[in-house]
Amino acid sequence: MAARNDSTKYCVEPFSGKNFSLYKRRVEVVFALKELEKYLETEADETKAAEIKDAQKAYAILLTLLDDTILATVATESSGCQIWTSLKQKYLKVSVVSQILVRKKLATLKKSRDCSMQQHLNELLAIVNKLRLSGAEVKYMDVVIYLLMSLPGDYDVIKSTVENQPNETLLFGLCYAKTFEC
């Protein structure tokens, strides 16, 4: 196993209670790179000095990744695992509610007549990005479906054409247009 460089710095904003899904992903990556990810999910084996030392590092790192208001809410937790479990229990629920609200907004989005197609696409993609930031996985085909659902009857011919395209052709066209990352 390669030696770890524990002095490596990572830029993660301290968690303030907003956007836990994004924060969670960043923290998990940092802990994985430091080979400490197991201490987010399990306690150290009290009989192994190396595990106790690594668990203490994980705890210290996690404390530095919380702002003061959040830190105060987990002050009674004595390990990284306990803090992480507490944060997930509280903030993943908020994330799920946020995803539901954003999905509802996406599903009810309608292109207005006075809005250009580019403006409409920008609005749709902004909502998709909010959904992704809340931790949801949004596939390209989902975006196409939301777009088609949002178009008024004036676009029925285009909608019909797109709906009858083979998936490969449709995805290639989207990637070629660079509207979406592929």
Question: What report would you give on this structure?
Answer:
- The chain is 64% helix and 0% strand.
- The chain has 2 domains: 20-92; 109-177, no CATH class.
- The protein is elongated, with a radius of gyration of 22 Å.
- The protein has 182 residues and is an all-alpha fold.
- The chain is built from 9 helices and no strands.
- This is Retrovirus-related Pol polyprotein from transposon TNT 1-94.
- It holds the Pfam family Retrotran_gag_2.
How many β strands by DSSP? 0
CA gyration radius, whole angstroms = 22 Å
Average pLDDT value?
A: 84
Secondary structure class reads mainly alpha
Shape label = elongated
Question: Which segments are poorly predicted (pLDDT under 50) over 5 or more consecutive residues?
Answer: 178-182
The helix content is 55-70%
The biggest sheet, with number of strands, parallel, antiparallel or mixed sense and barrel status, is: none
Distance between the termini: 34 Å
How many domains is the backbone divided into?
2
What order do the helices and strands follow? Answer: HHHHHHHHH
Fraction in beta strands: under 5%
Count of discrete alpha- or pi-helical segments spanning 4 or more residues: 9
Protein name: Retrovirus-related Pol polyprotein from transposon TNT 1-94
